[in-house]
Amino acid sequence: MILRSRGMADSSGKDSSPSERFRALEVYPGETPRELYVRLKELFSKWVRPEQKSVKEISEMMILEQFLRMVNTEMEVWIKERNPKTAEEAHFSRKLCSSISG
């Protein structure tokens, strides 16, 4: 799963991925610590789907997401268009792009 954008569409979480909502660092007005915990756990499960993936797959997914957050926007879009499944594939795409444009 690759994120659609770097930002959230709005504070309700519409048009954003579970990963983006998980990382939003927003506590809703009146939300108790228990409600915050439950919401984060739910978002994490929707994003990572731990019951369907191995530890290695989850690790690759998280590394890929962070990799995409760290490259410039143009590179991020270029890599996402190639739909890599792992960070290693994204790295190879980035190397390829760099050699083409450089």
Would you write up a description of this structure?
With 102 residues, the protein is mainly α. The chain has two domains: 1-52, no CATH class; 54-102, no CATH class. It is built from five helices and no strands. It has helices spanning 18-22, 33-48, 55-70, 73-81, 87-101. Helix 3 packs parallel to helix 5 and helix 4 packs across helix 5. The longest helix has 16 residues, at 33-48. The radius of gyration is 16 Å and the shape is elongated. Mean pLDDT is 77; it is low at 1-13. Residues 20-90 form the SCAN box domain.
Q: Strand tally, please?
A: 0
- Domains, number: 2
Biggest beta sheet attributes: none
Rg from alpha-carbon coordinates: 16 Å
Unreliable residue runs: 1-13
Helix/strand-derived category reads: mainly alpha
Anisotropy-based shape = elongated
Which series of helices and strands comes N to C?
HHHHH
Regarding quaternary structure, how should these chains be classified?
single chain
The percent range for strand residues is under 5%
- Kindly state the percentage of residues in helix: 55-70%
pLDDT averaged residue by residue: 77
Through-space gap between termini = 29 Å
Architecture blueprint of SSEs:
Layout: H1 18-22, H2 33-48, H3 55-70, H4 73-81, H5 87-101
Helix pairs in contact: 3-5, 4-5
